[in-house]
Hints:
With 292 residues, the chain is an alpha+beta fold. It contains 5 helices and 16 strands. The strands form 3 sheets. A 9-stranded mixed sheet has the order 15-14-9-10-11-13-7-6-16. A 5-stranded antiparallel sheet has the order 4-3-2-1-5. A two-stranded antiparallel ribbon has the order 8-12.
Amino acid sequence: MEKKFLEKLIGQQSKIISKEPGEKKVKVISGSIENVDYTEGFIFVDSKQGAGILRIGNIVAIKPLDNIKKSFKQNSDGMVGIGTLIVFIAMILVAAVAASVIIQASESLQQKAQSVSTETIREVSAGLVISDITGLTNVNKTEITHLALTVRPRAGSKDIDLSRCTVSILYNDLSLLTLDTDLISVVNTDNTSVFNTPVEPGSDATILGGTTQTKFGIISIHDPDNSVINTNGMNGGDRIYIIVNLSAIISEHNGLIPRAIISGEILPETGAPGVFEMRAPAVFSHRIVTLL
Length: 292
C-alpha cells in the first residue's frame, strides 16, 4: 500500500483484512490504526482484543468505519436526550403535584379562616341587651314576687331564637329558666299593668300566673313583623318583656326582700348575653318598683 493512503487512516476506526503467508483464511480485525512504520513495514492497531502490530505486506484490505462510529455517537446522544427529557417531565409532574397540594391547602385554610371570622363576627355583634328591669311586689309590699326585664337585640345582631335562650338567676342558689312557648303574648294596652297581660285576649290566665321556678314568659312590646309571636324570634327593632317568677325561685322569702342583691343573665344561642346585677330598695313604696 502506498504511504499516502495509510496516513489518511491513522486515528480512524477501520476493519482490517489480513492474510498470513501460507494460510488460506483471512483474518478480520476491527480497531483504530494508531501509527504506521514504513521503515519496518508495520502498522499499529488498537482493537477490542488489545493493541497489536500487523505487517503491512500481509494486509489485504482496510475499510474505514467512520459511518458506524458516527451512528453510534448519534444513538448515544439520543439516549442522553431521552433521559434528560424523562427527568424534565418528572420534575414538571412533581412541581404540578406540589402546586396542587399547596393550592388545596391554601383553599382549605381560607375556608376555615372565613368560617372562623364569620362565627367571631356573629359572636361579637349578636346578642341581647337588658335596657331596664321592673319589679312587682306582693299586696303587702314586703317582697318582689316577679321581674319584668326589658330586652332588645344588640345593634347589628342577627335574628335570635328566644326558645333557645336561657335565663339564669343568682341569689342564694343558681336557677336556670327556659321559655314556655305557651306563655307568649302581645302586651294588652287596655290593662292597668303589663303584669296583667293575658295569655290570650279575653282569657283570665295571665303570663305572670303561668311562670314557674324553671319557666319564664314573654310579653311582646314592639314587634312589627310579629316574629316573636309567630316564630319565637327577635330581630332588629323588637322589644319584649321577659317575666320571671321570683316567688318561686326564692321560695324561702316568697320573693326578693328589701336590700337583697340579685344578679343574672339572659344567654342567647349565639352572641353576647344580657347581664344584670341589682340591689332591691330598702322600702317598697309602690307595688311597681323600678330596679334598673
